[in-house]
Known about the structure:
Number of domains of chain B: 1
Oligomer: heterotrimer
CATH class of chain A: Mainly Alpha
Number of helices of chain B: 10
CATH architecture of chain B: 3-Layer(aba) Sandwich
CATH topology of chain B: Rossmann fold
Radius of gyration of chain A: 22 Å
CATH superfamily of chain B: P-loop containing nucleotide triphosphate hydrolases
Distance between the termini of chain B: 32 Å
Order of helices and strands of chain B: EEEHEEHEHHHHEHEHEEHH
Strand order of the largest sheet of chain B: 6-7-8-3-9-10
Number of strands of chain B: 10
Helix content of chain A: over 70%
Shape of chain A: globular
Radius of gyration of chain B: 18 Å
Strand content of chain B: 25-35%
CATH architecture of chain A: Orthogonal Bundle
Structural class of chain A: mainly alpha
Order of helices and strands of chain A: HHHHHHHHHH
CATH topology of chain A: MetI-like fold
Largest sheet of chain A: none
Shape of chain B: globular
Helix content of chain B: 25-40%
Largest interface: A-C, 91 and 90 residues
Number of domains of chain A: 1
Amino acid sequence: MRLLLNKIVLLLSTLSALIGLAFLAWILFTLIGKGLSSLHFSLFLNDLIDGGLRNLIVGQFIMAGIASLIGIPVGMMAGIYLQEYGRGRYVRFIRDLSDIMMSAPSIVIGAFVYAIVVVPMHGTSGIAGSIALSIMMIPIVINTTDNMLSLVPRELREAGIALGASKSRVIVDIIIKAAKVGIMTGLLLSFARIIGETAPLLFTSETSNYFSVNLTEAYPSLTVSIYALANDPTSSSRDLAWAASFILTMMVLMINLLGRYITRKKG
Amino acid sequence: MPIMSVEDFSFTYAAAPARSLNSINLPIKKNSITSLIGPSGCGKSTLLRSLNRMHDLYTNNEYEGRLMLLNETTLEMENILDIKKENEFIQLRQRVGMIFQKPTPFPMSIFDNVAYGLRLSGIKNKTELKDRVEDALKGSALFGEVSDRLNKSAMGLSGGQQQRLCIARAVALKPELLLFDEPTSALDPISTAAIEELIVELKKDVSVAIVTHNMQQASRISDYTAFMYLGDLIEYGETEQIFLNPREKKTEDYITGRFG
Amino acid sequence: MMEKLFKTLSFMSATLVMVLLASIFISLFNSAKPAIDEFGIGFIKEKEWGKEVPIDNPVSTVVDTTEQKKVEPAPASDDSLEALLGGGNDDTPMKTIYGGFIPIVGTLLSTLIAMAFALPIAMGIAVFLAEIAPKKISNVVGIAIELLAAIPSIIFGMWGLFYFAPLVQELVGGYQVSLLTAGLVLGVMILPFMAAITRDSMKTTPDVLKESAYALGATKFEVIRDIIFPYSKAGIIGSIILALGRALGETMAVAFLIGSVFSLPSALNSPTVSIPVAMANSFGEATGMKTSALFYLAFLLFIISFSVISVAKFYFLRKDK
C-alpha cells in the first residue's frame, strides 16, 4: 500500500514534468512552424509600412537599449549601496520595496509612465517607452547585483582595504570583478526580460509603421505591433505576427542561453 | 558472531575517477561497538553509509563485493547488495538505523519525531505508539527532560537533546544495527559525554558501528576499532590492542598524532 | 571626494526605488482622483461600464424643461436607438457611469482558474526536479522549464488564441475567447515560474534531514510529504503567492483570450474582461472620466498586487529571517 502510493505519486510527478515539457514543445513547434514559414529575409530589410519588420526590431532594441543605459547603472549602484554601504533597517526596507517593484504588474508601470511622461509631452514617444522599460529593469538589476555581491567573500573586501585602497576602489576594482560573471548573467537575463515586454509599451511608445530615430514621437515596437497584427483579421498580418513572434522568442531565448552559458563556462 | 560482515567490499562514487574504498574486509560484531577511525577522506563515512545503502539515494554509485547482514530468524547471512526492490530497502533501513553528524529533528513535535518511523512501519494503535515512544525516549535518557512537552516542536530542544531525540527515533524501530556518523562532532563536551554514555548503554540491545574523528572517543567507548587510510582498511582489532599495541606503522603514526 | 560622490550616488540610486514606488502610488491616485470623487468606493461593486444615465439632480430645471420640449418631435428611429443605449434622451443632462465590478471579478476568476490549473502541475514538476529525476535529467528539464518561463507573455497569448483555445473549445464547447481559455493560458504561463521557484524552495531542505527519514525506512513520497513539504512550507507558500501576484497583473497572456467585453461571465466558457486587459484595450482611445476610471482600476490593481506580494515577501519569504 505504502509502496503503491509512493509509485503513484512519483508517476504523477513525472507526468507533470512531461506536461510542462509538452507545453514548451507545443509552443516552440508552433512558433517554429508558423514562424519559419512566414519568415523571409526581406522582413529584415523592409519596414512595417512595406510589410517588413526592420523598424520594429530596431525600435524594440533601441528602447530596450536606452532602458538598459538607465536601468543598469542605477540598479547596480543601488545594489552596491544595499550590499556595501547601507546598514540595518533602511537596507531591508529598500530591498523589500525593490522586490515588490519587481513583481508589480507591468501594465501599471505603463499607466504610471503615461501619467508622468505621455500626458505632459502630449503624446506617446520612444522616450516614454524607454522609461517604462527602465523602471521594469531597475529592480531586476538591483536584485541581481545584491545577490551576486553577497557571494563575494568578506576576506576579499578586507584584503583590499588592508592594502590601503579606498572603499569605492575596492568595490569597483575587486568586488565587482569578483562577481563579474554572475552580474553579467543577471544583466543579460534582465535585458531578455524587458525586450519581450508588451504591456508597459502599449500606451507609452505605442508603435509605428515607419523607421524612426526620433524618440519624441510614437516609436516602433515589435511587441506592440505583434499584438496589433495578431488581432488583425487578414491572414498576411497574422503571418507577419507569427514571424515577428518567432524572431522575438528566438532573441529572448538566445540571450537567456548566452547568460547561462557564461555562468556555466566561467562560474 | 558478526551481525554484519564486510567482504572484499569496494565502492566508487558516480563519475569519480577512482575507487573510494578498496576491497575492505571487516566484521561488525553483535552487541558490541565497532569504531571506524582515520584521517579525513579515508573512506570511513563512505563505508558506514554503505552499510544501510544510503548511497543509493543518489544514482550511479558502484558497489563491488559483499555486505552480509545476519538474518536473526534464519540465522543466515544475506548479502544486502542484492537488494533491488523498494520494500527491501525500507526493511533494510528499519533494521540498520543511522544517526548523523548534526542532529536532524524533523519539523514536527517531539512525540511525532519518535513516532514517525513507527507509524511508517504500520503501527497505528495509539497506546502501542505511546508505549514505544516512551520506551525509546527512556532508552535514550531523554524522557525525564521532555515528558512534559512531548507535543512541543522538536526544534526547541538543545543540540544534545536533539541528538538524543534522533537516537530515540532510531531506537524506537528496534533496529539490529545502529550506524553513528560522527554523532558528537557538533556538540559541546557535556552533551558529548551524555551521548557516549547512551551509546555504551545501547549495546545491550543493538550492535553499533560508529565513525569518529575523536580518538579518545573511540578508545573510551568501542570494543573493536578499524583504522582506515585512503580507502584501505589498514588494521582491525580489539580497541585496546589497536591503541596500545598497533601492528601497523601507519596506525601507530595516526594514533600518536603524527598525521591526521 | 570621489569616495563621497560614489557613496552618495549609490545611496541616491537605492532611494530612487522608494521614490519611484511612492510616485507610482501618488500619480495613479491623482489620475484616478476624478473617478474616485465621482464614484467613491462603490466603484468596486458597480456593474455598469460606460452606461449613460440622467444626472439625478439637474442644476437648473428651467434649462431642463426647455430642452426637453425641443426634443419631443424627434423621429422614432432615434428613440429606438436611445432605448438601445440605455434610455433617456439627447437633451437630458447625462453622465456616464463607470464601475469596476466586472474587470475585478474577471481578474480574480481568471487568476483562480490559472492557479487551479497550474498549482498541482507546478508542484509535480517541482517535486520531479528536486527529488525524483537524476541530476542530469533534472538539470536539462530544469533549464527547459526556465526557458518556458522566459518566453514573453504575448507569445503565450498568441499561441493560446490560435492553438490552445480551439482545442479547449472542442473539449468543453462555448466560446474560444472566454474566461476559461484565458485562465488556462494564464495558468500555462505561470506554471514554469511557479515550478521553478517552488523547486528552489524545496531544494533548501538539508540532505541529511531527508537521509534521516530514509534511514527510518520512509519511501520517497513519505520523505516529500513529511520532511520536504513541512520544512520548506513557508518558501513553497511564498512561491505560490508570488505566482498568484504575477497572474493577477498579467496583461498579454490574457488580452488575446478573455474577450474584453464588459459583461459578467454567465458561464466559465463565456467572455469577460480583466483589469489589465481593460487597460490594454481601452486606454489608448479613452478620454476624460473614462481615462480616470481606468486609472482607478490600475490603482486598485496596484494595491491588490502590492498587498499580495508583500504578504509573500514579508510573511513567507523573509530572506534574513
